[in-house]
Amino acid sequence: MNLIDSLTEKFSKLPGIGPRQSKRFVYFLLTKDRSYLKELAENILNLKDEVKVCKSCYRFFNNYGGATSVCDICFDNSRDNSVLMVVGKDADMENIEKNHIYNGKYFILGGYLPIMNDNAPWVRSKELMKLIEKKSEKEELKEVILALSLSPEGENTIHYIMQILEPLRAKFGLKITTLGKGLSTGTELEYSDDDTLKNALKNRS
Ligand SMILES: [Zn+2]
């Protein structure tokens, strides 16, 4: 396989990118100068060294020196430890942060539970249970907000998480809420605007 084909194949593995678009990327790169290509290649190479997964909330965060194992949000003592918001992916959390409507802590599930595939839960359910148990014992966690989109996969995930959290809810007297009423069906948290998010959060139940 020549270099053009090989790179085209690699780009076509990116989410949402087909073979035709990936070939356009390759020809675009061929028009750029060497310094651009070098910086791009170095950025990609450094991703794994400089961006880490937070040991508490599982979001990706910049960690140049490798000094801390938790992200700035988890580390921030001025944030409310009594609420934990569970979101599907990093981009959902980033959108909520950008709109400054929430001051508690987060947990990133890493995806939704696919429908018709209940025996392969690839969301971080065990990690979530561990964190909730720890937070309930040490940090007086009072509420878990399931901030998941109302797509079929999102609802499937909410149903599954409600089930696995039931023993912890009963043991620690936790309140478990969803953003249900404020978000219309299929709304993506990642793209929701300020008012939609505010209302969804206010009307959670
Ligand atoms: Zn974190």
Protein architecture, described:
The protein contains 8 helices and 6 strands, in the order αααββαβαβαβαβα. It starts with a helix and ends with a helix. The strands form 2 sheets. The protein has a 4-stranded parallel β-sheet. Strands 1-2 form a two-stranded antiparallel sheet. It is globular. Helix 1 packs across helix 2 and helix 6 runs parallel beside helix 7 (152-172). By secondary structure, the chain is of the alpha/beta class. It folds into 2 domains: 3-47, RecR Domain 1 (Helicase, Ruva Protein, domain 3, Orthogonal Bundle); 77-202, Dna Topoisomerase Vi A Subunit, Chain: A, domain 2 (3-Layer(aba) Sandwich), CATH 3.40.1360. Zinc ion (ZN) binds next to helix 4. Zinc ion is lined by residues 54, 56-57, 59, 70-71, 73-74.
String of helices and strands: HHHEEHEHEHEHEH
Bound molecules: zinc ion
Counting structural domains, the number is 2
**How many H/I helical runs?**
8
Strand order of the largest sheet: 4-3-5-6
What sort of overall outline do the alpha carbons produce when their principal axes are compared?
Answer: globular
Structural class given helices, strands, pairing?
alpha/beta
What name does CATH use for the topology of the largest domain?
A: Dna Topoisomerase Vi A Subunit, Chain: A, domain 2
Q: What is the CATH first-level class name of the largest domain?
A: Alpha Beta
Chain-averaged pLDDT = 88
At a glance:
With about 200 residues, the protein is α/β, with parallel strands linked by helices.
Walk me through the topology.
Elements: H1 3-11, H2 19-31, H3 34-50, E1 51-53, E2 60-62, H4 72-75, E3 80-87, H5 90-98, E4 104-108, H6 125-138, E5 143-147, H7 152-172, E6 175-178, H8 194-202
Parallel strand pairs: 3-4, 3-5, 5-6
Antiparallel strand pairs: 1-2
Helix pairs in contact: 1-2, 6-7
The protein binds zinc ion.
The site of zinc ion has 8 residues, from helix 4.
